[in-house]
Q: What sequence folds into this?
């Protein structure tokens, strides 16, 4: 399917179409909620056709089920399944059966606002693009519900002083890390299965991917050339790009750009440096080149991004 034919929704545009309910928590670019009865008409009207969601999402059912396609992968979301949707996932709702759902949606920048370093989590989000439905134990399901309930209780207390705001951010951060831990555990289980099945190609590719991410996390601010990382891993640039595309669906260049753009966004939102200083900090030759690079990958200028909410 031509990408231009796929509709895209940000969290803001979704909320504009389908406003939060009074019982939902909506805070600084994050919405948590629960629907005893899923609005089938709404879900099918928004996601009847493949739709790109430019937000982080996590959904599971307390009863019933929802059947979706996520990046061409068929998923049934039930009581013992967590569906994780990283930004830019293409989702289509196929059907639902008397579903009662718990959901969390947040803007990509929200995690930065609660002081979670996205660069540390990128390999997890890449893994769930390949396997978006994660099996939940009863304990894991109850832990997520309990964490969500703590957040909702703090919000409904009505306290908005600075300490209460920090408590709320801490609870949200805790929920995010719990979800990441769950994903990390499933990745570990998958790697153990591959080893048990003696799949040398998959094990080797995963090892190279992990090594690439480790090198990228150390050097992305001054090295944006695929050849640099290929040399560090004793591979050719062509082989590294092919390996990463096969393993993750992204090329080495796409991974490098993702890291640089994430750091640029963090600095624009949270650093006192001016744009020229940020450009030099990220090893761009000048502010103009940095601005063109940032706009190419985000669609807006650094100045516009800094002034956006």
A:
């Amino acid at each position: 399917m031509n990408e231009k034919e796929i509709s895209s929704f940000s969290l803001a545009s979704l909320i504009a179409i389908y406003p939060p309910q009074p019982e939902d928590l909506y805070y600084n670019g994050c919405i948590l909620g629960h629907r005893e009865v899923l609005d089938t008409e709404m879900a099918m009207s928004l996601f009847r056709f493949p739709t790109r969601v430019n937000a982080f999402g996590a959904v599971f059912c307390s009863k019933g089920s929802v059947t979706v396609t996520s990046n061409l992968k068929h998923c049934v979301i039930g009581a013992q399944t967590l569906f994780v949707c990283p930004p830019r996932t293409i989702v289509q709702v196929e059907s639902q059966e008397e579903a009662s759902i718990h959901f969390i949606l947040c803007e990509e920048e929200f995690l930065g606002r609660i002081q979670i370093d996205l660069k540390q989590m990128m390999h997890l989000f890449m893994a769930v693009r390949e396997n978006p439905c994660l099996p939940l134990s009863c304990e894991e399901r109850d832990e997520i519900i309990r964490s969500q309930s703590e957040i909702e209780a703090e919000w409904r207390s009505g306290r908005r002083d600075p300490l209460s705001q920090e408590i709320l951010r801490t609870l949200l951060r805790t929920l995010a890390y719990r979800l990441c831990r769950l994903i990390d555990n499933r990745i570990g289980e998958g790697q153990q299965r591959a080893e048990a099945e003696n799949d040398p190609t998959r094990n080797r590719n995963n090892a190279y991917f992990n090594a690439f991410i480790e090198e990228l996390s150390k050097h992305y601010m001054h090295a944006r050339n695929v050849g640099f990382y290929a040399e560090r891993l004793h591979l050719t640039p062509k082989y590294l790009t092919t390996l990463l595309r096969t393993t993750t669906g992204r090329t080495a260049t796409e991974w490098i750009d993702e890291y640089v753009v994430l750091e640029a966004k963090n600095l624009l939102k949270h650093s006192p440096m001016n744009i020229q200083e940020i450009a030099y900090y990220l090893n761009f030759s000048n502010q103009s080149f940095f601005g063109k690079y940032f706009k190419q990958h985000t669609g807006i200028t650094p100045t516009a991004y800094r002034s956006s909410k």
Observations:
- The two ends are 33 Å apart (CA to CA).
